[in-house]
Specification:
Radius of gyration: 22 Å
CATH architecture: Up-down Bundle
Number of helices: 20
CATH class: Mainly Alpha
Number of domains: 1
């Protein structure tokens, strides 16, 4: 193919790619931090709007239900409608829902806004990852980009705690929602300038409506079932009924995908051994990470009486280690050793961090007792998440990059729901058992019961990571068997990228 005269310089194209990464990173940040930033604002919001403790969970659940159940649909829409257009729609919708939530005058209005946030996040999150996947095809650039993106995905929860504490203490709880608006505006401007259109070849694919209904219903019931078990207990018939119905719908979805002419999720995407291992790794790491964030936060605030701001700052070293590990793993270790080595090592570090956390007590000091496991956990997540995310989208046909990316987010969301529900239930049971065995129930005994319950949760978190390490070691292919082949397939279009970049009249410097 002959290069046209108006083709941009390669340096300009590369520069636009990195600006695209910055734009995508902002979008990923608001989606991920919103899972935790609102948690710290809940007490102030409850006092302001006057809803009950029983209703409080719906501020979190409304977001997670909409987000978790609509992810695959959101990912597929980016494949059908176009990534740039879907990305901008997701950003504008998320910002509008955030503004609505910040202005909420009633509990119902706040819950509705949170559900809308979740719905637009389900469009935005997989589209952001799909844009990244189709933009960075040169292996070295792809590694750097996924290192940054994976660091944001892993650190977003901790950043949310820090930002939530700062906004709640210095401004107002409503700014935990308003803050998304300026970030989204900057991201929209960046998307309009730097995210390129990718020309469609062949007929426009059709949406698999039956598959969409089946999988959305299954994911809704799955997330709702675990959320209900978290609040009502595992003896709740409703929880088990929803989980059973979710299983039935998932089986029906798989059977339908085998015969659908335009499947929502071609099963070859998830049945690829490396990608399947990556999705499972993200799910298990998500189960351990989300639950542990919760209990370490409780420990710092209730046992050591840290303020929200102090709690947020306490997580900063973990974020620093996560960012460092993300860059090292994707740029150096993953290309050299492959995910079969890197991800299990990350899981093993997760086990070490969880075991270290079990040593915490009412007299623990931050520098000697809390900082080391936080840093180990940060390095663990920085080794697991970026490597798994990069592997999960490697070698996927561009036509299905959106839905493959959505599977990453779905795995993390489902893992978080499972981990939070299981660990909360186990911790509550442990606390009750401790109080029963230690009488009379003084304030000191109640405080010890809480710390004991956290230790039980940490041990189970260690079990999650240990399981993840075994699964990753068994399922991932050796480096030479799969990763290099997929990388070669991804890198193939790069030779023609300069001429292809000049092909669109609307965007003179297209990124792929």
């Amino acid at each position: 193919m002959t290069q046209t005269s108006d083709a941009p310089p390669i340096a300009a194209v590369t520069s636009r790619r990195w600006w695209t990464l910055a734009t995508v990173g902002l979008a990923q940040l608001i989606v991920v931090l919103d899972a935790t930033v609102v948690n710290i604002a809940l007490p102030a919001a409850q006092a302001d709007l006057g809803f009950s403790n029983g209703d409080r969970q719906w501020i979190i659940t409304a977001y997670s239900l909409a987000f978790g159940s609509l992810l695959l649909l959101g990912g597929r829409l980016s494949d059908l409608v176009g990534r740039k257009r879907t990305f901008i729609i997701g950003l504008i919708g998320f910002a509008a829902a955030s503004a609505l939530g910040g202005a909420a005058t009633t509990f119902g209005m706040l819950v509705g806004a949170r559900a809308l946030q979740g719905a637009f996040a389900a469009v935005l999150a997989p589209t952001a990852l799909a844009v990244l996947t189709t933009t960075f095809t040169i292996p070295k650039e792809r590694a750097r980009a996924f290192g940054v993106f994976g660091a944001i995905a892993g650190a977003g929860g901790a950043i949310g705690l820090l930002l939530g504490g700062f906004l709640t203490e210095t401004l107002d709880w409503r700014w935990n929602l308003y803050i998304n608006v300026p970030i989204a505006i900057v991201a929209v401007i960046g998307a309009m300038i730097f995210v390129g259109h990718i020309a469609r070849t062949g007929p426009r694919p059709k949406l698999d409506v039956p598959g969409t209904v089946l999988v959305s219903g299954a994911l809704f019931l799955l997330v709702y079932g675990f959320s209900n078990a978290e609040t009502e207990g595992w003896d709740s018939p409703l929880s088990w009924g929803m989980l059973a119905a979710s299983g039935v719908l998932l089986v029906a979805f798989v059977l339908w995908q085998l015969r659908a002419r335009h499947p929502l999720l071609p099963l070859s995407i998830v049945l690829d051994r490396n990608r399947g291992a990556a999705y499972v790794s993200v799910l298990i790491a998500g189960a351990g990470m989300f639950g542990i964030f919760l209990f370490v936060t409780y420990y710092l605030q209730t046992s050591l009486h840290y303020s929200p701001m102090q709690t947020g700052f306490s997580f900063l070293p973990m974020i620093a280690m996560l960012v460092l590990a993300a860059q090292l793993s994707t740029n150096i270790f993953l290309p050299r050793f492959g995910p079969k080595v890197i991800v299990p090592i990350g899981m093993l570090l997760g086990v070490v961090a969880m075991a270290y956390f079990t040593l915490l007590n009412a007299d623990s000091a931050y520098a000697a007792d809390i900082l080391p496991p936080l840093m180990i956990l940060g390095f663990a997540m920085g080794s697991i998440m970026p490597a798994s995310m990069q592997t999960a989208t490697l070698g996927v046909d561009r036509e299905f990059a959106g839905v493959a990316s959505a599977m990453v987010n779905t795995s993390q969301q489902v893992g978080g729901s499972i981990g939070t529900a299981l660990l909360n239930t186990l911790a509550a049971t442990a606390a009750t058992g401790y109080l029963t065995a230690h009488t009379p129930t003084t304030d000191a005994v109640v405080a010890e019961a809480a710390i004991h319950s956290y230790a039980v949760a940490y041990w189970w978190g260690a079990g999650f990571f240990a399981l993840g390490g075994v699964v990753a070691a068994l399922l991932f292919r050796r480096r030479g068997d799969g990763l290099s082949l997929a990388t070669a397939r991804d890198a193939a279009p790069v030779a023609a990228s300069t001429s292809a970049d000049a092909a669109s009249e609307a965007e003179p410097a297209i990124v792929h």
